[in-house]
Design a protein that fits this description.
Layout lengths: L2 H11 L5 H6 L13 H7 L4 H14 L7 H4 L4 H6 L1 H8 L14 H22 L4 H16 L3 H17 L5 H17 L3 H19 L4 H30 L6 H22 L3 H19 L4 H16 L3 H19 L4 H16 L3 H18 L5 H14 L1
Helix pairs in contact: 7-9, 8-9, 9-10, 10-11, 11-12, 12-13, 14-15, 15-16, 16-17, 17-18, 18-19, 19-20
Length: 399
């Protein structure tokens, strides 16, 4: 094809800055499918990890009728895909950030992939058991199409399940777990929850170093993510500080407005929750949480309470691992504010224990309930209903 074709293609996918680079390397539409790896793109001179990911995804879409990479993309070859999930994910697993132009892909095909993976997941659960490598691999693979469909919460849930299974298996799966944490970071980055993104990318970086070495390709890529988000978070903090210095009335006028908005979101969340509209309640509680953190910072009693509400909502819609994450946030904040042996902290600890139990994390649940039982024995007494409730859960776990 002509140079105009490759230019038009880059314009279509929103990365026109690279069209001249491809022309200089005599790459057109006809030989574009020969670009198959990150190393190919790095040799050309594309340094951005996210842009390389996007280009590889677009090439895969463009050459869907060709033989290149078909074993990894075709669901009919899903057994082979599950044996090498990292190959599938290395081609498709990231989308560009919202700062770049929108990512165009076949939505119908992507949603069909979700249905195919869901069917495969049930088959592997039946054939191999829930806590098996094939099931973990499908959870890791299905996270991608959910990500591309902008269902970041669902994508996160699957990556967390994959991590949990890999960690429970006897063999070491550091590279697979590192990949999942990298993708969790990308989900949280899309959700603008930068501290959580940083948390998962740091874990990913350490695991890639452990499994592949500090100079490995994957470790260097995640390091780019970490450096980028630290710079972004630093600029955000600097901007907030500058605004606070130049707007001394913020505490009076804007704080009152924020409190009013928080109360509205919280009331709507409670109403939706009481009417069993848990998805809507979740949206309201998350909106309230965002404003609470802006107003109070992370370590505040109201923030801890809101994490509890979000945990409750996730629990009701059977997203146990996301529920665990939010209850854990509440527990950590209350522990910092009130100490380990306090009513408030014990409440979070007890709810966290229940969620651990339903997420099949029995060791963690046992620890929570045992600690709660000891606290309630001293604080309420052995005849109290609180103590008896904790004792019942301890006995339930012991079987």
């Amino acid at each position: 094809m002509s140079k105009k074709d490759i230019t038009a293609w880059f314009n279509e996918i929103g990365l026109s800055q690279y069209s001249e680079l491809f022309q200089e390397n005599e790459i057109g539409i006809d030989n574009l499918p020969e670009i198959a790896t990150h190393d190919d793109l790095k040799e050309i001179g594309i340094t951005s990890f996210i842009h390389r990911k996007k280009i590889l995804v677009e090439i895969a879409e463009l050459s869907s009728s060709a033989t290149l990479e078909q074993d990894e993309q075709d669901i009919s070859s899903s057994d082979e895909l599950i044996e090498s999930p990292s190959e599938y994910e290395n081609v498709d697993e990231s989308n560009e950030s919202q700062e770049d132009s929108e990512f165009s892909f076949d939505e119908e095909e992507n949603r069909q992939s979700i249905e195919d993976f869901k069917e495969l997941l049930e088959k592997y659960k039946s054939d191999h058991g829930i806590m098996s490598r094939p099931v973990a691999s499908v959870h890791a693979a299905i996270g991608l199409p959910y990500y591309l469909d902008e269902q970041y919460d669902v994508s996160t849930e699957h990556y967390l399940k994959a991590v949990k299974i890999y960690e429970e298996l006897d063999e070491e799966y550091d590279a697979e777990i590192a990949e999942c944490h990298r993708n969790l970071g990308q989900n949280y980055d899309e959700l603008k929850q930068y501290e959580k993104a940083l948390f998962h990318w740091k874990i990913s970086y350490e695991l890639f170093i452990k499994s592949q070495g500090e100079d490995s390709y994957d470790a260097e890529e995640v390091k780019e993510f970490i450096d980028g988000i630290l710079e972004e978070m630093g600029n955000s903090i600097e901007t907030e500080n500058t605004e606070q210095e130049s707007q001394p009335a913020l505490d009076n006028i804007d704080a009152v407005k924020l409190k009013e908005e928080i109360e509205i979101h919280k009331a709507k969340g409670d109403e939706n929750y009481d009417n069993s509209n848990y998805e809507d309640a979740l949206t309201n509680y998350q909106a309230a949480l965002e404003k609470q953190i802006k107003l109070f910072g992370e370590e505040h009693e109201d923030v801890a309470n809101c994490y509890m509400d979000i945990g409750d909502s996730y629990f009701q819609i059977d997203k146990d691992l996301l529920s665990v994450e939010n209850y854990r946030n509440s527990f950590n904040i209350r522990k910092s504010l009130f100490g380990l042996d306090s009513e408030e902290t014990d409440q979070s600890r007890f709810e966290l224990g229940k969620t651990y139990y339903f997420a099949d994390m029995e060791d963690e649940a046992k620890e929570c309930f045992s600690n709660s039982l000891d606290f309630r024995k001293e604080f309420y007494g052995k005849k109290s209903k609180e103590y008896k409730k904790a004792k019942k859960w301890v006995q339930k776990i012991k079987g």
